[in-house]
Amino acid sequence: xxxxxxxxxxGVTRYRPEQPGSQPPYLHESYRSTVKRAPLAAPVIITPTLxxxxxxxxxxxxxxxxxxxxxxxxxxxxxxxxxIVVSGRVLDEDARPVRNSMIEIWQANAAGRYVHxxxxxxxxxxxxxxxxxxxxxxxxxxxxxxxxxxxxxxxxNHENAWRPAHIHYSLxxxxxxxxxxxxxxxxxxxxxxxxxxxxxxPPAVRDRMVSRFDLDTTLPDIALGYHFDFVLRGxxxxxxxxxx
Amino acid sequence: MSRLLETTPSQTVxxxxxxGLPWTGGxxxxxxxxLGERIEIRGQVLDGDGLPVIDALVEIWQANAAGKYAHxxDxxxxxxxxPAFLGFGRCATDADGQYRFYTIRPGAVPAPGxxxxxxxxxxxxxxxxxxxxxxTRVYFESTPExxxxxxxxxxxxxxRERLIARTEPAGAAVYxxxxxxxxxxxxxxxxx
Lengths: 244, 192
Hints:
The structure holds 2 protein chains of 2 kinds.
Chain A: E1 44-45, H1 50-53, H2 60-64, E2 83-92, E3 102-106, E4 132-136, E5 142-148, E6 153-155, E7 161-163, E8 166-171, E9 180-185, H3 203-206, E10 212-213, E11 224-227, E12 230-232
Parallel strand pairs in A: 2-11, 2-12
Antiparallel strand pairs in A: 2-5, 3-4, 3-8, 6-7, 8-9, 10-11
Chain B: E1 38-46, E2 56-61, E3 88-92, E4 98-104, E5 109-110, E6 116-117, E7 120-127, E8 134-140, E9 164-168, E10 171-176, E11 179-180, E12 190-191
């Protein structure tokens, strides 16, 4: 018996392993950048210790600075594009809310251009849009951003390659094991079907990353609503000593 | 057992995260009030051709000098939280693939079963071309506790050194820890 299979840390439960098939492989050749960056050795599987079962869990403003939930504000004028509200909840696998957890987003502007020196796509920058936001989830795990709908943009992965419109998301959850960086897509986008990054997952799993239009959060005369819930790894109720 | 919700898949951080994720001072975990020995950790992120990865994001998470994590589930009463140390940092690699952190040497933290782990720092890598995060650990050379560390003990002896940061000629408190994503010198990554 491995020494790691001893007594559980008092009051600390581990997280369930990733659900089979829920995560993309490292090597996915049609996404060219994976070819020289995917590790070839299998990861070393460990029983998590306190180091893996903890993670940054507060002090967000002290760390990163003030929250920013409205990406359309803070400039001299209104950004160009279709104003949208994106909102939803962060839950664990048991549908429990993930509270007071940081969510960060970044995105292209309505023309599909990022405020980044290496984005050389010949589309206009918008002086009234940067495209970054961060908020903490509330006690129900809810979050909400006001932004503009990002545009699709070309990339150099293959001939005539275009990324579907997406918003990048970074989430923490309670521990290192729940840390997640992902992308949220928009319903009805024909580019999703042919995007090598989204299609690193089979269609049924891929489509978990597609938001849905939501009339309930649509602001009359102001902005369309899109709803997107995140599900992070949940707690494993089985104490370590009962595992085979 | 009730049916579990389906987890959200990971996607790459992409090449443009610098507009949103790094924050000013994100690679400096210490303030003048922080307890503990100051150290610097620096390194280069390299791909399978040995080329620098200029668009990687490196994050670290660590215990304070007393071996305590600033986390509600570290409930030990024999180690105290340092109010001047949150233990989390973030650094984007530069045009040469380099990152660096200014932090403190962490204390030893417990392993299950009442044993202790050698001082170490959790390190997470994101990059364009990585569809999921990678997690490794930074241990320190010339640390006697390394010999009994239960996680190091799980790693093949020939690869163990890739988890050990080495001091730089610049000074005893400056450590180098390169991250090789792929190939013969590939770093050791963990899953749990």
